[in-house]
Specification:
Number of strands: 13
Number of domains: 2
Strand order of the largest sheet: 2-1-3-12-4-13
Order of helices and strands: HHEHEHEHHEEHEHHEHEHEEEEHHEH
CATH class of the largest domain: Alpha Beta
Helix content: 40-55%
CATH superfamily of the largest domain: Bordetella uptake gene, domain 1
Largest sheet: 6 strands, mixed
Distance between the termini: 85 Å
Radius of gyration: 23 Å
CATH architecture of the largest domain: 3-Layer(aba) Sandwich
Structural class: alpha/beta
């Protein structure tokens, strides 16, 4: 009877472990694994790399795996995630994953969200913003619009990237201008398409544009007293919410709205998987991200970079991202053709 009881208990334990999967112990599944993380950026100094590197480094250290970030750019990253089977590669990226498709920069048939698994979210950027030279005759987006209405012959160029968050912000400003001041004013707002924040800043300093999209954390040093006058900038509008302790105005505070709805948007960072990954992998990564991203060490480290910690499981994040995509699709449907706004 004792042997039978022991056998029954052992079988019950095995059955219980099978039901629980790996989520309760991600170390069991992740230990010793090598996982390649492709990201939709080529820079190792930008927000996409910094956030992905931080979370993967902390997961690797905690669970004894080797997760390495490979900055190959948006187009290649999207191709990798839909074609690489299993855990051979996962992608860490932000809202451009679906915005690029909505804007037509990437093929919907190949790269829509339905062709991948939305993984957990591990952070967001509270500081998506537009900045202008401190010598400009305006210090907010609202003041820029008023100045443009009073100077109808002047062109204002904003440096952005096509197909992502910066294009969304540019479109929001354009549509607000058109609603507030009419087409004759709005048509003088032009997109200057370029790449990294460093390239955008150089374009601003060279006089090729009058404002740029950037993460506030990457341009904050140029807002400070003592910066050379030709390099100094003002943050003229935050796309998201207010940042505690900072004087920077938000779009919504300035009345920047689309079809009467205040424009508010924050870039969020998420993992994405090929549909062939195992349930055990999804559960293990959910558990690992949950444990790491709620730790004081991670929260302190990501805030030191200028970003905020966030922890949504794969299921929670999928619902959130699909809902967000639907909202942005409605906004983008009212935007003019971007090619007509580029100069």
């Amino acid at each position: 009877m004792k042997r039978a009881l022991c056998l029954t208990l052992a079988l019950a334990m095995v059955f219980s472990m099978a039901l629980c999967g790996w989520a309760a112990s991600p170390a069991d599944y992740l230990k010793g694994k090598t996982i390649r993380v492709v990201i939709g950026a080529t820079s190792v100094t930008g927000d996409t790399y910094l956030t992905a590197d931080l979370v993967t480094r902390m997961i690797s250290q905690k669970y004894g795996c080797n997760i390495k970030v490979d900055p190959i750019g948006a187009g290649r990253a999207l191709e990798e995630i839909v074609t690489t089977k299993g855990e051979g590669a996962i992608m860490m990226f932000h809202d451009m994953t679906y915005l690029g498709v909505l804007f037509g920069a990437y093929d919907e048939e190949d790269y829509r969200l339905e062709n991948m698994i939305v993984g957990p979210s591990y952070g967001y950027n509270p500081g998506d913003c537009f900045a202008a030279s401190a010598s400009a005759p305006y210090s907010t987006v609202a003041e820029m619009g008023k100045w443009m209405s009073e100077n109808p012959g002047k062109i204002v160029r904003l440096a952005v990237e096509a197909g992502g968050v910066s294009q969304l912000g540019f479109d929001a400003i354009y549509m607000w201008l058109e609603g507030a001041y009419g087409h004759d004013v709005a048509k003088n707002l032009k997109a200057f398409v370029t790449g990294s924040t460093a390239e955008k800043l150089q374009a601003l300093w060279d006089g090729n544009c009058q404002g740029i999209y950037a993460a506030a954390s990457t341009v904050q040093e140029y807002t400070l007293e003592g910066v050379e006058p030709q390099l100094r900038v003002n943050i003229i509008g935050l796309m998201g919410g207010k940042i505690e302790g900072k004087p920077w105005p938000t779009f919504s505070e300035q009345g920047i709205a689309i079809n009467g709805v205040p424009f508010v948007f924050s870039k969020e960072y998420s993992a994405f998987y090929n549909p062939s990954v195992s349930k055990e992998f999804i559960e293990a990564m959910d558990a690992a991200v949950q444990e790491v991203c709620t730790s004081p060490e991670y929260i302190q480290a990501i805030e030191a970079l200028g970003y905020k910690a966030q922890c949504l499981t794969s299921a929670e994040n999928a619902k959130h991202i699909y809902d967000k995509r639907a909202g942005m699709k409605e906004v983008i449907s009212h935007c003019p053709d971007f090619d007509d706004l580029v100069e």
